[in-house]
């Protein structure tokens, strides 16, 4: 099946996804246009309103942030189009999480994004055999400062010569407090089907040159450990450069020419 794809957002991830689709980089997927707030200088495809995108596309790809997921999810899925979300943290929000089972007829899919191993962890969780799942994310310290932090907290994060723990808690709070930095946690919690068993630690490291996601999980079925060291995007140090390619892989998995491993 050929997919007609509209991309929402034209930042670091959206622009790369749209450019690759426009050059035919994903077999069986064609870019019909992009939905933006502000017109970019060199858009990868025709600019569309969401309504126009829904007329033209059967697959919408969100690359614009958690608020946008809430804005578009009902319109896309009720039209029967599929929605791939990059801002996976939105799935843990009370506005969306409890409704996931009743949305449609379009399908909602979350990309694995900046991490991997979720297929195996989902399999282990399916067996009922995972007791604990932990993710420790380390990013360059200044990228973790947020507007809601006190000046003292911002200073603690940016001035420390050593790595500092910026957050420790559960996935829902992580996705709410760091909506553009901990979507991977929501993807992990969604894969294992639990927010209760997942714990999160976010670390700011002044000397980090890579973004590190250390995922460990354990139970009767086995012990698992994945260490992912991503190169941050040069344009947006909060985002790992591989994420756009993960979104493209997720799109590829929805085409008639899906990769043998997706
Ligand atoms: N799952 C994962 O592993 C990861 C997920 N993410 C998620 O992906 C999102 C995008 O990341 P990234 O590309 O690096 O971020 P950027 O800030 O580079 O780009 C975000 C883009 O979204 C646009 N946008 C915001 N609101 C709207 C709207 N209402 N309609 C259309 N466009 C809009 C912005 O436009 P404008 O220029 O007008 O502000 C901007 O161009 C992040 O916010 C995060 O939620 C990021 C990294 C990893
Ligand atoms: O890009 C990353 O490494 C992770 C990230 O920002 C997110 O999960 O939102």
TrEMBL record:
Q: Which reaction does it catalyse?
A: L-aspartate + NAD(+) + H2O = oxaloacetate + NH4(+) + NADH + H(+); L-aspartate + NADP(+) + H2O = oxaloacetate + NH4(+) + NADPH + H(+)
**Aspartate dehydrogenase domain span:** 162-248
What keywords sit in the KW lines? Answer: NAD, NADP, Oxidoreductase, Pyridine nucleotide biosynthesis
- For this protein, the Enzyme Commission number is 1.4.1.21
Instruction: State the Pfam families in the record.
Output: Asp_DH_C, NAD_binding_3
**SUPFAM superfamilies, A to Z:** Glyceraldehyde-3-phosphate dehydrogenase-like, C-terminal domain, NAD(P)-binding Rossmann-fold domains
Q: Where does NAD(+) bind?
A: 114, 183
Q: Where in this chain does the record put each Aspartate/homoserine dehydrogenase NAD-binding domain?
A: 9-100
The active site of this protein is located at 213
Q: In which pathway does it act?
A: Cofactor biosynthesis; NAD(+) biosynthesis; iminoaspartate from L-aspartate (dehydrogenase route): step 1/1
Does the UniProt entry include the keyword rRNA processing? no
HAMAP family to which the protein is assigned, alphabetical = NadX
As for family, the record states: Belongs to the L-aspartate dehydrogenase family.
Could you share any additional remarks the record makes about this protein? The iminoaspartate product is unstable in aqueous solution and can decompose to oxaloacetate and ammonia.
Function of the molecule:
Specifically catalyzes the NAD or NADP-dependent dehydrogenation of L-aspartate to iminoaspartate.
Tell me the protein's name.
Answer: L-aspartate dehydrogenase
Provide the species name: Janibacter terrae
Lineage of source species: Bacteria, Bacillati, Actinomycetota, Actinomycetes, Micrococcales
